[in-house]
From TrEMBL:
Pfam assignment, any one: PI-PLC-Y
Subcellular localization(s) per the UniProt record: Cell membrane
Coiled-coil parts of chain: none
Topological category with respect to the lipid bilayer: Peripheral membrane protein
Species this chain originates from: Prunus yedoensis var. nudiflora
Biased composition annotated in UniProt, kind: Basic and acidic residues: 316-327
EC number: 3.1.4.11
Record keyword Hydrolase present: yes
Name assigned to this protein: Phosphoinositide phospholipase C
GO biological process, one term: phosphatidylinositol-mediated signaling
């Protein structure tokens, strides 16, 4: 049984915890944008009167004349914890040997050593200075209770580190992926900056998306969300920030996906900027098309560029300019990159070339006329080719044994495609990379359910990292696995083929292999994160805890 303690601030959906250990642990997640997990220890005093400070008593004003005072109840160990302590202690104390046995038998930390058990005891007792000398080298019930519900006992042990096989091709991993990584807020009018990129990299995000456009004078390159009121940021500033912060949280490769809206001369400038900024860190493929993606292990501390050689965009733009020089850029881009699909409700199950993402264009087959417009040094940078062959979605999902590529679908397109072409998507993602991105109507930078993409093998489920909410908590929880390195190995059933070359059908019901049970013992600590009047101006809040379990297809 997995027994989880939930803080009272965790009144939303708890994130999934891939490969998390069983036993008793503290489960917490951010509850607001930019907020960190609550700590079980009181913060130091602050001069800020608005900063929440825990106290033994709390006073509330009533009608400007009266006050109500409430005493905070001191948390004590539930009966189950007391029984567990009695089982693994002797005469009311838990020695190093007792704690080591508890770690291996209950917490399932098979590799735990007695030295680590002693370090745990020392850590817990440092903050319980009121204990007498006799208790300074062992745990009593109070100290044991503090250990179970403290940061030192997280759901996923940080000591595990990277433990997945990292020598398989990139297509065998789920990759922590951002969408429009440069935006500070909404998709229409927020500022573009390198700050969200830095923040994402520090959280372990491994795929950064940049939309590159000519600047106002057409002589340099900016990053912005085209066709909106977002303020631009210089490309070179973003590149330098990526170089400086790429491997702070993880040494595994960072992929930069470019949505290119440039002329050939500016493409050449981008090639120069990228090459000069990253130098030897930049991964350059030996051939124009890869037959198989390299492994994350072989690409440690490397930067990878992914985009589509933009022959189709240039050709469509040239044709449109000849026919209608006054036409707007939106119509040009739609012809070149493809339209966004409408809402799926009531939509027919029909796929055509306009239903695929704008950056994938209208075909990637060789075209002599358009290829000559592309800067050759720019093409040589591209390690992961994006794009699609001409035809409908089924044609796009065909696996080419001679080359691998990246295909992008919106959340709507994937949801619709999964109903008809589920097995084809799984087969495609065994060798190729599928990127899923939010639908265009999410102008508030909200996110979607990532489980549909993951259950079909999609490696790059792109999220707005500047957002907030349950879907983002799910994403953050997923990529806490494997040491938080940003790469999580896909389960074998998404990678294997049967004796007749059959693959998993995501709609099939699989036999249950593991049952996860969650028991909430208690919740506390809201006063560490909020003013005492944050929820109710006249009395302490009444909380309840709600735990949600998403599909566990991925972690069994």
């Amino acid at each position: 049984m997995c027994k989880v303690k939930v803080n009272p601030t965790d009144w939303g959906l708890a994130p999934p915890l891939p490969h998390h250990r069983s036993g008793i642990t503290t489960l917490s997640h951010p509850i607001s944008q930019g907020q960190t997990d609550a700590s079980p220890n009181p913060p130091p005093p602050s001069s800020d009167p608005n900063e929440p400070i825990p106290m033994s008593k709390q006073t509330y004003r009533v009608c400007f004349c009266f006050r109500r005072r409430f005493k905070l109840a001191i948390s004590e160990a539930p009966p189950e914890i007391k029984a567990l302590f009695d089982q693994y202690s002797e005469n009311g104390i838990m020695t190093v040997d007792n704690l080591h046995r508890f770690l291996t038998e209950v917490q399932k930390e098979e590799k735990a050593t007695k030295e680590e058990a002693q370090a745990t005891i020392d850590h817990c007792l440092r903050e319980l200075k009121h204990l007498n000398i006799f208790h300074r080298k062992v745990l009593n019930l109070e100290a044991f209770f503090k250990y179970l519900f403290g940061d030192i006992n997280p759901p996923i042990s940080s000591s595990i580190g990277v433990h997945h096989d990292m020598s398989a091709p990139l297509s065998h991993y789920f990759i922590y992926t951002g969408h429009n990584s440069y935006l500070t807020g909404n998709q229409l009018s927020s500022d573009c900056s390198d700050v969200p990129i830095i923040q994402a990299l520090h959280r372990g995000v491994r795929v950064i998306e940049l939309d590159i456009w000519p600047n106002s004078t057409k002589d340099d390159v900016d990053v912005l969300h085209g066709g909106t009121l977002t303020t631009p940021v210089e490309l070179i500033k973003c590149l330098k920030s990526i170089k400086e912060h790429a491997f702070v949280a993880s040494e595994y490769p960072v992929v930069i996906t470019l949505e290119d809206h440039l002329t050939p001369d500016l493409q050449a400038k981008v090639a120069q900027l990228v090459t000069q900024t990253f130098g030897d860190v930049l991964f350059s493929p030996g051939s124009e098309c890869l037959k198989e993606f390299p492994s994350p292990e072989s690409l440690k501390k490397r930067i990878i560029i992914s985009t589509k050689p933009p022959q189709e965009y240039l050709e469509a733009k040239a044709v449109k300019s000849e026919n209608d020089p006054k036409s707007g850029k939106t119509q040009v881009d739609e012809e070149a990159w493809g339209q966004e699909v409408p809402d799926l409700k009531g939509a027919n199950m029909v796929y055509d070339k306009d239903e695929l993402e704008e950056e994938d264009g209208n075909g990637e087959e060789d075209n002599d006329k358009s290829s000559q417009h592309v800067a050759p040094e720019y093409k040589r940078l591209i390690a992961i080719h994006a794009g699609k062959p001409k035809g409908g979605l089924l044609e796009c999902l065909k696996v080419d044994p001679d080359k691998v590529r990246r295909l992008s679908l919106s959340e709507q397109q994937l949801e619709k495609a999964s109903g008809t072409y589920g097995k084809e998507i799984v087969r495609f993602t065994q060798r190729n990379i599928l990127r899923v991105y939010p639908k265009g109507t999410r102008v508030d930078s909200s996110n979607y359910n990532p489980m549909i993409g993951w259950s079909h093998g999609a490696q790059m489920v792109a999220f707005n990292m500047q957002g907030y909410g349950r879907s983002l908590w799910v994403m953050q929880g997923m990529f806490r696995a494997n040491g938080g390195c940003g790469y999580v190995k896909k389960p074998d059933f998404l990678l294997k083929t049967g004796p007749h070359n059959e693959v998993l059908d995501p709609k099939d019901k699989l036999p249950v292999k593991t049952t996860l049970k969650v028991k909430v013992y208690m919740g506390e600590g809201w006063y560490y994160d909020f003013k005492h009047t944050h929820f109710d101006a006249y009395s302490p809040p009444d909380f309840y805890a709600r735990v949600g379990l998403l599909e566990l297809l991925l972690i069994v």
